[in-house]
Protein backbone atom coordinates (compact mmCIF):
# COMPACT_ATOMS: atom_id res chain seq x y z
CA UNK A 1 0.00 0.00 0.00
CA UNK A 2 2.90 2.34 0.73
CA UNK A 3 4.22 1.92 -2.82
CA UNK A 4 0.78 2.57 -4.24
CA UNK A 5 0.50 5.74 -2.17
CA UNK A 6 3.90 6.99 -3.32
CA UNK A 7 2.92 6.35 -6.94
CA UNK A 8 -0.40 8.14 -6.54
CA UNK A 9 1.29 11.00 -4.73
CA UNK A 10 3.75 11.44 -7.59
CA UNK A 11 0.89 11.23 -10.08
CA UNK A 12 -1.20 13.89 -8.36
CA UNK A 13 1.80 16.15 -7.75
CA UNK A 14 2.49 16.06 -11.48
CA UNK A 15 -1.12 16.69 -12.42
CA UNK A 16 -1.63 19.52 -9.96
CA UNK A 17 1.45 21.24 -11.33
CA UNK A 18 -0.04 20.98 -14.81
CA UNK A 19 -3.38 22.34 -13.59
CA UNK A 20 -1.86 25.09 -11.46
CA UNK A 21 -3.12 27.80 -13.80
CA UNK A 22 -6.67 27.36 -12.46
CA UNK A 23 -8.50 26.16 -9.39
CA UNK A 24 -11.37 24.29 -10.97
CA UNK A 25 -12.58 21.41 -8.77
CA UNK A 26 -10.98 17.99 -9.17
CA UNK A 27 -13.41 15.06 -9.22
CA UNK A 28 -12.00 11.65 -8.27
CA UNK A 29 -13.79 8.62 -9.75
CA UNK A 30 -12.92 5.11 -8.55
CA UNK A 31 -12.85 1.93 -10.59
CA UNK A 32 -13.94 -1.71 -10.30
CA UNK A 33 -14.99 -2.62 -6.74
CA UNK A 34 -14.15 0.88 -5.56
CA UNK A 35 -15.80 2.67 -2.66
CA UNK A 36 -16.62 6.05 -1.18
CA UNK A 37 -14.72 7.92 1.49
CA UNK A 38 -16.58 6.42 4.45
CA UNK A 39 -17.51 2.94 3.25
CA UNK A 40 -14.53 0.87 4.42
CA UNK A 41 -13.43 2.05 7.85
CA UNK A 42 -10.45 4.41 7.63
CA UNK A 43 -9.17 2.93 4.37
CA UNK A 44 -9.46 5.38 1.52
CA UNK A 45 -9.73 4.18 -2.06
CA UNK A 46 -7.60 7.16 -2.99
CA UNK A 47 -4.53 6.58 -0.84
CA UNK A 48 -5.28 3.60 1.38
CA UNK A 49 -4.17 4.48 4.91
CA UNK A 50 -3.33 7.93 3.57
CA UNK A 51 -5.79 10.42 2.14
CA UNK A 52 -5.17 11.80 -1.35
CA UNK A 53 -8.21 14.08 -1.23
CA UNK A 54 -7.07 15.63 2.06
CA UNK A 55 -3.54 16.01 0.68
CA UNK A 56 -4.76 17.91 -2.38
CA UNK A 57 -7.04 20.06 -0.25
CA UNK A 58 -4.04 20.95 1.93
CA UNK A 59 -2.38 22.26 -1.23
CA UNK A 60 -5.28 24.59 -1.91
CA UNK A 61 -7.28 22.51 -4.39
CA UNK A 62 -11.01 21.87 -4.31
CA UNK A 63 -11.46 18.10 -4.48
CA UNK A 64 -14.47 15.79 -4.37
CA UNK A 65 -14.70 12.00 -4.38
CA UNK A 66 -17.74 10.31 -5.91
CA UNK A 67 -18.94 6.79 -5.11
CA UNK A 68 -20.48 5.05 -8.11
CA UNK A 69 -21.63 1.46 -8.57
CA UNK A 70 -18.51 -0.71 -8.13
CA UNK A 71 -19.73 -3.34 -10.62
CA UNK A 72 -22.14 -1.24 -12.69
CA UNK A 73 -21.82 -0.49 -16.38
CA UNK A 74 -19.80 2.39 -17.74
CA UNK A 75 -22.99 4.26 -18.67
CA UNK A 76 -24.67 3.77 -15.30
CA UNK A 77 -21.53 4.87 -13.43
CA UNK A 78 -21.27 8.01 -15.55
CA UNK A 79 -24.89 8.97 -14.85
CA UNK A 80 -24.41 8.35 -11.13
CA UNK A 81 -21.28 10.51 -11.09
CA UNK A 82 -23.13 13.37 -12.78
CA UNK A 83 -25.92 13.53 -10.20
CA UNK A 84 -23.55 13.17 -7.28
CA UNK A 85 -21.58 16.15 -8.55
CA UNK A 86 -24.40 18.37 -9.81
CA UNK A 87 -27.22 17.21 -7.54
CA UNK A 88 -30.79 16.12 -8.23
CA UNK A 89 -32.79 12.93 -8.64
CA UNK A 90 -30.75 10.13 -10.20
CA UNK A 91 -32.20 9.43 -13.66
CA UNK A 92 -30.74 6.75 -15.92
CA UNK A 93 -32.90 7.90 -18.82
CA UNK A 94 -36.10 6.45 -20.23
CA UNK A 95 -34.53 4.88 -23.33
CA UNK A 96 -31.68 3.19 -21.47
CA UNK A 97 -33.93 2.03 -18.64
CA UNK A 98 -36.49 0.46 -20.97
CA UNK A 99 -33.78 -1.23 -23.04
CA UNK A 100 -32.19 -2.92 -20.03
CA UNK A 101 -35.23 -3.16 -17.75
CA UNK A 102 -33.85 -0.77 -15.12
CA UNK A 103 -35.46 1.33 -12.42
CA UNK A 104 -35.16 4.71 -14.14
CA UNK A 105 -35.31 6.85 -11.01
CA UNK A 106 -34.42 4.78 -7.91
CA UNK A 107 -36.04 5.94 -4.68
CA UNK A 108 -33.73 7.53 -2.14
CA UNK A 109 -31.20 8.51 -4.79
CA UNK A 110 -31.60 12.28 -4.64
CA UNK A 111 -28.33 14.16 -4.18
CA UNK A 112 -27.69 17.64 -2.81
CA UNK A 113 -24.67 17.83 -5.07
CA UNK A 114 -20.97 18.01 -4.24
CA UNK A 115 -20.59 20.97 -6.60
CA UNK A 116 -24.06 22.36 -7.50
CA UNK A 117 -22.56 25.31 -9.39
CA UNK A 118 -21.11 22.97 -12.00
CA UNK A 119 -21.74 24.31 -15.52
CA UNK A 120 -19.84 25.67 -18.52
CA UNK A 121 -18.71 28.70 -16.50
CA UNK A 122 -17.57 26.49 -13.63
CA UNK A 123 -16.03 23.38 -15.22
CA UNK A 124 -14.26 20.52 -13.46
CA UNK A 125 -11.24 18.27 -13.90
CA UNK A 126 -12.27 14.61 -14.07
CA UNK A 127 -9.79 11.99 -12.83
CA UNK A 128 -10.49 8.28 -13.10
CA UNK A 129 -8.48 5.34 -11.83
CA UNK A 130 -8.82 1.88 -13.39
CA UNK A 131 -12.38 1.44 -14.73
CA UNK A 132 -13.05 4.96 -13.48
CA UNK A 133 -11.03 6.12 -16.48
CA UNK A 134 -13.72 4.77 -18.77
CA UNK A 135 -16.41 6.27 -16.56
CA UNK A 136 -15.08 9.82 -16.86
CA UNK A 137 -14.79 9.46 -20.63
CA UNK A 138 -18.39 8.29 -20.81
CA UNK A 139 -19.50 11.15 -18.57
CA UNK A 140 -17.89 13.66 -20.93
CA UNK A 141 -19.63 11.94 -23.85
CA UNK A 142 -23.06 12.11 -22.20
CA UNK A 143 -22.52 15.75 -21.28
CA UNK A 144 -21.83 16.74 -24.87
CA UNK A 145 -24.50 14.52 -26.46
CA UNK A 146 -28.26 14.98 -26.56
CA UNK A 147 -30.13 11.66 -26.68
CA UNK A 148 -32.47 11.85 -29.69
CA UNK A 149 -33.41 8.21 -30.24
CA UNK A 150 -36.67 6.79 -28.91
CA UNK A 151 -38.32 8.82 -26.15
CA UNK A 152 -37.30 12.44 -25.65
CA UNK A 153 -35.19 12.57 -22.51
CA UNK A 154 -36.20 15.15 -19.93
CA UNK A 155 -33.20 14.97 -17.62
CA UNK A 156 -30.61 17.74 -17.57
CA UNK A 157 -27.82 15.35 -18.50
CA UNK A 158 -29.45 13.31 -21.26
CA UNK A 159 -31.85 15.86 -22.73
CA UNK A 160 -29.31 18.60 -23.41
CA UNK A 161 -25.86 19.25 -24.86
CA UNK A 162 -23.80 20.49 -21.91
CA UNK A 163 -20.56 21.47 -23.60
CA UNK A 164 -17.72 23.13 -21.75
CA UNK A 165 -18.48 21.49 -18.40
CA UNK A 166 -15.20 19.55 -18.36
CA UNK A 167 -11.79 21.19 -18.52
CA UNK A 168 -9.64 18.06 -18.48
CA UNK A 169 -9.85 14.28 -18.31
CA UNK A 170 -7.08 12.27 -16.65
CA UNK A 171 -6.97 8.48 -16.52
CA UNK A 172 -4.56 6.29 -14.58
CA UNK A 173 -4.15 2.54 -15.09
CA UNK A 174 -7.38 2.62 -17.08
CA UNK A 175 -8.45 -0.23 -19.42
CA UNK A 176 -9.11 2.17 -22.29
CA UNK A 177 -8.79 -0.69 -24.78
CA UNK A 178 -10.23 -3.28 -22.41
CA UNK A 179 -8.71 -5.55 -19.79
CA UNK A 180 -7.70 -9.02 -20.96
CA UNK A 181 -8.40 -10.34 -17.48
CA UNK A 182 -12.09 -9.52 -18.04
CA UNK A 183 -12.14 -11.71 -21.15
CA UNK A 184 -10.24 -14.46 -19.32
CA UNK A 185 -12.68 -14.43 -16.42
CA UNK A 186 -15.73 -14.38 -18.70
CA UNK A 187 -14.33 -17.29 -20.72
CA UNK A 188 -13.26 -19.59 -17.91
CA UNK A 189 -15.15 -18.48 -14.77
CA UNK A 190 -18.62 -16.92 -14.38
CA UNK A 191 -18.10 -13.26 -13.56
CA UNK A 192 -20.07 -13.35 -10.32
CA UNK A 193 -18.21 -16.46 -9.09
CA UNK A 194 -14.84 -14.81 -9.65
CA UNK A 195 -16.01 -11.63 -7.98
CA UNK A 196 -17.41 -13.14 -4.75
CA UNK A 197 -14.12 -13.77 -2.89
CA UNK A 198 -12.91 -10.24 -3.62
CA UNK A 199 -16.13 -8.52 -2.61
CA UNK A 200 -16.49 -10.64 0.52
CA UNK A 201 -12.95 -9.69 1.54
CA UNK A 202 -13.66 -5.95 1.46
CA UNK A 203 -17.31 -6.02 2.52
CA UNK A 204 -18.49 -4.08 5.54
CA UNK A 205 -21.86 -3.00 6.85
CA UNK A 206 -21.37 0.23 4.91
CA UNK A 207 -20.08 -1.17 1.61
CA UNK A 208 -22.77 -0.98 -1.04
CA UNK A 209 -22.77 -2.47 -4.54
CA UNK A 210 -25.24 0.30 -5.51
CA UNK A 211 -27.37 -1.79 -7.84
CA UNK A 212 -30.55 0.14 -7.16
CA UNK A 213 -31.16 0.50 -10.90
CA UNK A 214 -31.51 -3.31 -11.02
CA UNK A 215 -33.69 -3.24 -7.90
CA UNK A 216 -30.99 -5.38 -6.29
CA UNK A 217 -30.12 -3.34 -3.25
CA UNK A 218 -29.18 -5.33 -0.15
CA UNK A 219 -32.14 -6.12 2.11
CA UNK A 220 -32.28 -5.33 5.82
CA UNK A 221 -30.56 -8.08 7.87
CA UNK A 222 -29.55 -9.91 4.67
CA UNK A 223 -26.08 -11.44 4.92
CA UNK A 224 -23.55 -10.27 2.40
CA UNK A 225 -23.05 -13.80 1.05
CA UNK A 226 -26.81 -14.22 0.76
CA UNK A 227 -26.97 -10.95 -1.12
CA UNK A 228 -24.22 -12.06 -3.50
CA UNK A 229 -25.97 -15.37 -4.17
CA UNK A 230 -29.18 -13.52 -5.03
CA UNK A 231 -27.19 -11.21 -7.25
CA UNK A 232 -25.55 -14.10 -9.11
CA UNK A 233 -28.90 -15.53 -10.19
CA UNK A 234 -30.08 -12.24 -11.71
CA UNK A 235 -30.41 -12.17 -15.50
CA UNK A 236 -28.91 -8.67 -15.76
CA UNK A 237 -25.43 -10.19 -15.96
CA UNK A 238 -26.23 -11.62 -19.38
CA UNK A 239 -26.82 -8.14 -20.86
CA UNK A 240 -24.24 -5.68 -22.10
CA UNK A 241 -25.15 -3.20 -19.36
CA UNK A 242 -22.56 -4.30 -16.79
CA UNK A 243 -18.86 -4.06 -16.12
CA UNK A 244 -18.60 -7.76 -17.04
CA UNK A 245 -18.99 -6.68 -20.68
CA UNK A 246 -17.70 -3.11 -20.65
CA UNK A 247 -14.29 -4.14 -19.31
CA UNK A 248 -13.69 -6.70 -22.07
CA UNK A 249 -11.81 -5.97 -25.28
CA UNK A 250 -15.02 -5.86 -27.30
CA UNK A 251 -16.77 -3.81 -24.65
CA UNK A 252 -14.01 -1.21 -24.69
CA UNK A 253 -14.08 -1.17 -28.50
CA UNK A 254 -17.78 -0.37 -28.41
CA UNK A 255 -17.08 2.52 -26.06
CA UNK A 256 -14.18 3.81 -28.15
CA UNK A 257 -16.24 3.63 -31.35
CA UNK A 258 -18.97 5.70 -29.71
CA UNK A 259 -16.91 8.32 -27.89
CA UNK A 260 -15.13 11.09 -29.76
CA UNK A 261 -12.39 13.45 -28.61
CA UNK A 262 -13.60 16.89 -27.55
CA UNK A 263 -11.15 19.54 -28.82
CA UNK A 264 -12.00 21.81 -25.89
CA UNK A 265 -10.91 19.22 -23.30
CA UNK A 266 -7.35 18.41 -22.21
CA UNK A 267 -6.65 14.68 -22.06
CA UNK A 268 -3.99 12.92 -19.96
CA UNK A 269 -3.48 9.16 -19.66
CA UNK A 270 -0.96 7.38 -17.45
CA UNK A 271 -0.25 3.67 -17.79
CA UNK A 272 1.30 1.43 -15.15
CA UNK A 273 2.75 -2.07 -15.06
CA UNK A 274 3.08 -4.65 -12.31
CA UNK A 275 4.64 -7.42 -14.40
CA UNK A 276 7.93 -8.18 -16.10
CA UNK A 277 8.91 -10.37 -19.03
CA UNK A 278 10.36 -13.75 -18.15
CA UNK A 279 13.44 -13.97 -20.42
CA UNK A 280 13.42 -17.77 -20.43
CA UNK A 281 9.73 -18.34 -21.17
CA UNK A 282 8.79 -15.22 -23.12
CA UNK A 283 5.64 -14.29 -21.25
CA UNK A 284 5.04 -11.82 -18.43
CA UNK A 285 5.08 -12.74 -14.75
CA UNK A 286 4.18 -10.70 -11.64
CA UNK A 287 6.69 -8.27 -10.16
CA UNK A 288 7.95 -9.18 -6.69
CA UNK A 289 6.44 -5.96 -5.33
CA UNK A 290 2.91 -6.93 -6.41
CA UNK A 291 0.53 -7.64 -3.53
CA UNK A 292 -0.09 -11.37 -3.07
CA UNK A 293 -3.88 -11.31 -3.73
CA UNK A 294 -3.21 -9.91 -7.22
CA UNK A 295 -0.66 -12.56 -8.18
CA UNK A 296 -3.12 -15.07 -9.75
CA UNK A 297 -4.78 -12.46 -11.97
CA UNK A 298 -1.46 -11.02 -13.10
CA UNK A 299 -0.14 -14.52 -13.80
CA UNK A 300 -3.15 -15.36 -15.96
CA UNK A 301 -2.90 -12.09 -17.89
CA UNK A 302 0.72 -12.86 -18.72
CA UNK A 303 0.10 -16.39 -20.03
CA UNK A 304 -3.30 -16.53 -21.72
CA UNK A 305 -3.92 -15.09 -25.18
CA UNK A 306 -7.34 -13.62 -25.88
CA UNK A 307 -8.57 -12.84 -29.38
CA UNK A 308 -11.14 -10.05 -29.43
Automatic annotation (TrEMBL):
List the InterPro entries hit by this protein, alphabetically.
AB_hydrolase_fold, Lip-like_C
| Transmembrane segment boundaries | none
What region holds the Lipase-like C-terminal domain? 22-284
Q: Which GO terms describe its cellular component?
A: extracellular region
Recorded GO molecular functions are: hydrolase activity
Keyword annotations = Hydrolase, Lipid metabolism, Secreted, Signal
Q: Which Pfam families match?
A: Lip_C (PF24708)
- Tell me the compartments it is located in: Secreted
Query: Endoplasmic reticulum as a keyword?
Result: no
A Gene Ontology annotation in the biological process aspect, one of them, is: lipid metabolic process
Gene3D superfamilies, A to Z: alpha/beta hydrolase
* The keyword Secreted belongs to this UniProt entry's keyword annotation: yes
Q: Which SUPFAM superfamilies match?
A: alpha/beta-Hydrolases
Name of protein: Lipase-like C-terminal domain-containing protein
Organism annotation: marine metagenome
Q: What is the lineage of its organism?
A: unclassified sequences, metagenomes, ecological metagenomes
Amino acid sequence: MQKIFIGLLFFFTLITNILAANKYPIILVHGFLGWGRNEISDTKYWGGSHDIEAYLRSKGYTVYTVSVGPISSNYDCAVEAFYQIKGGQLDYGKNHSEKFDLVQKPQGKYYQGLYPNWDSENPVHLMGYSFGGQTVRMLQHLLSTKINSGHQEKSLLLGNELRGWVKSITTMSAPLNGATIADIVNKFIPFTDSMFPIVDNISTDYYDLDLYQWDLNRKIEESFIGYLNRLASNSSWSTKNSIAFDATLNGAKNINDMISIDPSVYYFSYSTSCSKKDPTKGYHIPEESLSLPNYPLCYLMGRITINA
